[in-house]
Amino acid sequence: MTEFSISRRMALGIDLPFVSTDSSNHFPPTWPPTDDFPVVIDKNGCVVSYYGDDVWDLAPWASRAIRLNFVKYSKTKPCLSESCTKMAKLVCAWWLWGPRPVNNAGTLKSRFTQLFPLFKLCTEDGVDVERLYQHPDTVDKLASVFSPSNAEAALILLHNLFEQRSEFGKVILDRECLRRLSAASPSHEGSQTAYIPPRIWLYQVNRLREFLEDYEKIKDGVSACYLE
Which residues contact 211 (CB under 8 A, 6 or more apart)? Predict the structure, then answer.
C-alpha cells in the first residue's frame, strides 16, 4: 500500500547500457517504493541493493566504490534517527525516479552528501524531519551545519523538493524556512548588487547542465529534422 499515489510514470534515469525499461528497478510500482524493491541491479541482472537496505551500493553504476550509508554509526549510536533514515531514502529515490532524475551515481552521492547534515541535525535535536518546518530553532541552525562549499547546493535541492511537494508527497522546509535559510547562509547577499547571487548562479548552471544532458539524448533526432 502506498502513502500517496503516483501521478505520472516514474522511471530510473541512470544512463548505462545494462539499464533498460525491462529492468525490474526501472519503474517503481509504488511511491514510496517498498523495502523489497530493487534499487541497484548489476550488469548480470543480480540485485545488489534493495530499498530497505541500510546501505545502497552504487558501485555497479560507477565502476568504483560508491555507497549511500543511511545509518552511519558513531561509536554505538546511529547518526540518523529512523525518521531521518526514512526521509533520506525517500529523497534519494526521488532523485533516481522523480522528474529530471540523476543519470549517474556520482551526482546522487554528491546530493546525498550535501543534504546529510540536515538529517544529522534533526537526529541530534530530536526533531522529526517531516516536521522540521515547525521547528524554527533547528531551521536556524542549518546554515551553520552546511559546509560553505555545499550550502548553496543544499539550498537549491531543498527549494526544488518544496516546489515538487505535490508529487514528492512531503515537505521538509516550507517557503518561509527556505527564506530564513537563504538569509542565514554565509554566502547570502544581504543587499542588492549588480551581480547575480551565488545561489541563483548555481541554479542557472545546474539547469544549463540538465539542458545539455537532455540535448545529448535527443541530438540525433534534432539533426534529423533539419536533414529531411
Answer: none
For the entire predicted model, the pTM comes to 0.78
93-123: burial string, b at 16+ Cβ within 10 Å, e else = bbbbbbeebbbbbebbbebbebbbbbbbbbb
List, for residues 26-63, the tens digit of each pLDDT value. 999 999 999 999 999 999 999 999 999 999 999 999 98
At 181 the three-state DSSP class reads helix
- Spatial separation of the C-alpha atoms in residues 68 and 183, rounded to whole Å: 30
Residue type at 21 in one-letter notation = T
One DSSP character per residue, 154-169 reads: HHHHHHHHHHTHHHH-
Enter the C-alpha cell of residue 104.
549517474
Distance (Å, whole) CA 49 – CA 38: 6
Longest Cα–Cα distance of the chain, Å, equals: 66
The set of cell numbers assigned to 42 is 548489476
Q: Are 85 and 71 in contact (CB under 8 A)?
A: yes
